Amino acid sequence: MRATHVAASRTSTSILAERWWLRVGDERLLVRPSTEHDLSAVAVMHRRCSAPALLARYRLGGRPPAVIALDAQLRGVLSYVVVAATPASAPPAVIATGSVETDAEHGPEAGRLEVLVEDSWQRQGIGRELVRHLAGAAALAGHTQLVAYCGSGNEPAQRLLVPIGPTRFVPDATGGHLHTALPADAVGGLGPLRSGRFLWGDHGVEFRPDDSAYPARSA
């Protein structure tokens, strides 16, 4: 099918606001930008997470952050939630979050990467797919490197970041963090591009109008 060029009002960066589907086993998960309306569901997800999972994400002694901090995170330009289908009588459940924002300690070229996957959904490729998408989003937003603060438990994060680009561990007062250089083709990791709904062409993002023919991305 021939792709049509994005209309003038749909800039390349508008792909960051697109939702996309991720298939994990028999589950079809929705990945979409977060909003302040996700606060309740995200707070509930944090209560389901174990102390080790929260410690790896926030380094707050295994505790979730304050509600005001969660609210600020969800309002970020490059903040996403992963939503699982639930029975019709219940609201959709958020099972993972991911975000990138400018890292104040390393300047505007560096994006701080943050990902949290609920314990029962870990080791199924969700974190890997989120990191690929966030790396693409960061590159499109103008960042040239990702910084992940992982303390002493850096091996899981390193496994996710090494496939993205050259990654090095930097010791610091809290244990250490990872620096990953974003390659020129990092944008190709964006979920909507990999789902087949969009193409990255000579004119930036090109849109496939008939997205019904493209299956959910498998983790």
Please describe what this structure looks like.
The strands form two sheets. A nine-stranded mixed sheet has the order 8-9-7-6-5-4-3-2-12, sandwiched between helices. The two termini are 25 Å apart. It is of the alpha+beta class and 219 residues long. It has helices at residues 39-48, 51-58, 67-74, 126-140, 155-161, 191-194, and strands spanning 4-5, 20-24, 27-33, 79-84, 93-103, 107-117, 145-149, 167-170, 177-181, 198-201, 204-207, 217-218. The longest helix has 15 residues, at 126-140.
Task: Compose a concise summary of this entry.
With 219 residues, the protein is of the alpha+beta class.
Write the layout of secondary structure elements.
Blueprint: E1 4-5, E2 20-24, E3 27-33, H1 39-48, H2 51-58, H3 67-74, E4 79-84, E5 93-103, E6 107-117, H4 126-140, E7 145-149, H5 155-161, E8 167-170, E9 177-181, H6 191-194, E10 198-201, E11 204-207, E12 217-218
Parallel strand pairs: 2-12, 6-7
Antiparallel strand pairs: 1-11, 2-3, 3-4, 4-5, 5-6, 7-9, 8-9, 10-11
